[in-house]
TrEMBL record:
A Pfam family: dTDP_sugar_isom
Function (record text): Catalyzes the epimerization of the C3' and C5'positions of dTDP-6-deoxy-D-xylo-4-hexulose, forming dTDP-6-deoxy-L-lyxo-4-hexulose.
Record's protein name: dTDP-4-dehydrorhamnose 3,5-epimerase
Site feature Participates in a stacking interaction with the thymidine ring of dTDP-4-oxo-6-deoxyglucose, where: 142
Keyword Isomerase: yes
Similarity comment: family membership: Belongs to the dTDP-4-dehydrorhamnose 3,5-epimerase family.
Gene Ontology molecular function, alphabetical: dTDP-4-dehydrorhamnose 3,5-epimerase activity
Taxonomic source organism: Acinetobacter tjernbergiae DSM 14971 = CIP 107465
Protein's pathway: Carbohydrate biosynthesis; dTDP-L-rhamnose biosynthesis
Quaternary structure note: Homodimer.
Amino acid sequence: MNIVETKIQGLLIIEPAIFEDDRGWFMESFNQQKFEAALLDRNQPVPNFVQDNHSFSNKGVLRGLHYQIAPHAQGKLVRVVQGRAWDVAVDIRKDSSTFGQWVGVELTEQNHKQFWIPAGFAHGFIALEDNTQFLYKTTDYYSKECERSIIWNDETLAIDWKLEEGIELRLSDKDQLAELFDIFKKK
């Protein structure tokens, strides 16, 4: 397992070891001891995962930017098992030196990368292929009362969504009505 640190402390890209031969491939998709050691080596808190989620999206579906507030803030360990997605995390920790900055990573069924997004980040992704299946472990349960979102195309955040020619965006009504980052900052 290779750990890639990003420009924002706490956001990690995990590249699992893949063992391939003429029969196919094998990988550990999660190992608590290795994950814990990687976080402790970086003085990061170790989460307890309580829920696994699985989503299916066709090309152009954009989900986000979602987060949950306390007492049900969520960290997420995300990966794509089929298809291809551009995954984004935005630092919404108001006391952070990287507040309002974002990191994006392409997750595919071929690269097997995973993205660790601790609590304190808004998260979203766009499916870049039909039949994109996205798996994620969360550190707290879903809570409708604590669920929030920031508009995906906020000009202040200026996220590069890697929109490819010919992609027709599809968003939920909720995501189209999400709040601006400037409104979030004033809370």
